[in-house]
């Protein structure tokens, strides 16, 4: 029989990790279940991106930020199950949640926080014959390191923020960056598109798609492009191809028929800013939840996490306070506090 947890958090991304930190602050026995082998969530998809928009945090690389949120999330030693996919949720006779995972295990919990973000998320692959053999060579769906791109000619396919952000990241490192997009207009932030258009080392081509990858066994050497308006074909030399065609979201898990989670706009779960969903005992934080004014960004995930944990705490202990707790004097902080104070006093 599995141990009973106060709260089980599905997903070890920013929302799940901050929920784990906060539920530790609130003395809740906590478990995190994460499908991927590593904690960090979507931030692991952009290790080389500089993140500028987290309050009070100087610009920081995704990779470092992921490390920091993991460290913070583990402050209160939650039980962590990685490589574990939640498949099914039901209730048992004791009115506890039973969470079944793909490996046949069952996890019992008083409450659940869904922090499963975009669900099981994978980059949309190029639908071109033979493209898979170039993965891990010079066809990329994320940019794990900038080094291979130094002084190289890079073709980026995609017109959204990710494609344009990557183009900016690579300019100054790569020799040349060409961005193609199948539609009339790039959908990324206007100012970033304009900046890219005016850069001498970049070219932006709209109405353009990849038709064929031409190369040997090791790598792509050339790409055949099609201008879908003029029907003109064009073959260009490339050193690397980066594809930013968005992500496939695979629905995370199913529920037994007596549990009901209402959806909003198809994918997201309908909730409120207190992290409550339509199902009592199941709370939600981060990208997975939708309510009026919801911000699908890191800062939004952190605020949601605090509210979801407070709501879960009140659910399992109706006498507990629902307000946010600000404490710098938790036992777990003692050692770090002393280290910082010693450093400050130079002793
Ligand atoms: C390319 C890119 C760049 C971005 N840049 C910025 C930026 O600069 N600033 C900013 O504020 N935001 C940025 N964002 C958005 C930010 O990353 C998200 O808002 C944030 O990651 C949401 O956190 P989350 O924990 O809700 O979800 P996620 O980060 O998606 O984490 C959810 C986790 O749940 C796991 N999971 C899902 N289903 C299951 C299951 N059934 N069982 C077990 N585990 C499961 C997933 O594997 C995943 O690890 C960016 C996003 C992308 C894609």
TrEMBL record:
Keyword Oxidoreductase: yes
Domain of life per record: Bacteria
UniProt KW NADP keyword: yes
UniProt keyword list: FAD, Flavoprotein, NADP, Oxidoreductase
Signal peptide from the UniProt entry: none
Binding site for FAD: 34, 42, 46, 86, 121, 287, 328
MF terms (GO), sorted A to Z: ferredoxin-NADP+ reductase activity; flavin adenine dinucleotide binding; NADP binding
Protein name (database record): Ferredoxin--NADP reductase
Species assigned in the record: Piscibacillus halophilus
Upper classification of the organism: Bacteria, Bacillati, Bacillota, Bacilli, Bacillales
């Amino acid at each position: 029989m599995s141990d009973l947890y106060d709260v089980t958090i599905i997903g070890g991304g920013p929302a799940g990790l901050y929920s784990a930190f906060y539920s530790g602050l609130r003395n809740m026995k906590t478990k995190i279940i994460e499908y991927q082998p590593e904690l960090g969530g979507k931030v692991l998809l952009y290790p080389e991106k500089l993140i500028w928009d987290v309050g009070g945090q100087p610009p920081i690389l995704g990779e470092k930020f992921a490390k920091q949120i993991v460290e913070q999330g583990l402050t209160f030693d939650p039980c962590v199950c990685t490589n574990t996919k939640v498949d099914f949720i039901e209730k048992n006779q004791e009115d506890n949640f039973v969470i079944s995972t793909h490996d046949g295990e069952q996890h019992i919990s008083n409450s659940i926080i869904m922090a499963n973000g975009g669900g099981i998320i994978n980059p949309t692959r190029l639908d071109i014959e033979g493209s898979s053999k170039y993965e891990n060579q010079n066809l990329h769906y994320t940019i794990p390191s900038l080094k291979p791109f130094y002084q190289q000619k890079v073709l980026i396919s995609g017109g959204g923020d990710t494609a344009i952000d990557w183009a900016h990241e690579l300019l100054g490192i790569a020799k040349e960056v060409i961005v193609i997009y199948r539609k009339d207009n790039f959908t990324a932030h206007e100012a970033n598109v304009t900046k890219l258009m005016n850069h001498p080392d970049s070219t932006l081509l709209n109405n353009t798609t990849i038709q064929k990858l031409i190369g040997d066994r090791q790598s792509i050497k050339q790409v055949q492009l099609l201008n879908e308006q003029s029907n003109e074909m064009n073959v260009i030399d490339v050193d690397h191809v980066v594809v930013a065609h968005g992500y496939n979201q695979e629905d995370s898990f199913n529920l037994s028929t007596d549990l009901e989670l209402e959806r909003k706009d198809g994918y997201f779960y309908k909730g409120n800013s207190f992290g409550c969903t339509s199902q009592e005992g199941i709370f939600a934080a981060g990208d997975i939840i939708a309510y009026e004014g919801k911000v699908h960004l890191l800062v939004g995930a952190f605020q949601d996490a605090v509210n979801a944990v407070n709501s879960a705490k009140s659910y399992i202990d109706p006498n507990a306070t629902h307000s946010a707790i600000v404490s710098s004097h938790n036992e777990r902080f003692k050692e770090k506090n002393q280290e910082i104070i010693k450093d400050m006093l130079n002793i």
